[in-house]
Amino acid sequence: MGRKATEIIGINVEELIKNLNCALAEEWLAFYQYWIGARLMVGPMRGEIEPELLLHASQELNHAVLVVNRIIQLGGTPILTPEDWFKYANCKYEAPIDPYIEVILQQNLDAERCAIQRYQEIASLTNGKDFATYQMAVTILNEEIEHEEDIESWISDIIRLKEEFKSMRF
Question: Which residue from 49, 106, 153, 154 has the fewest beta carbons nearer than 10 Å?
Answer without folding.
Answer: 153
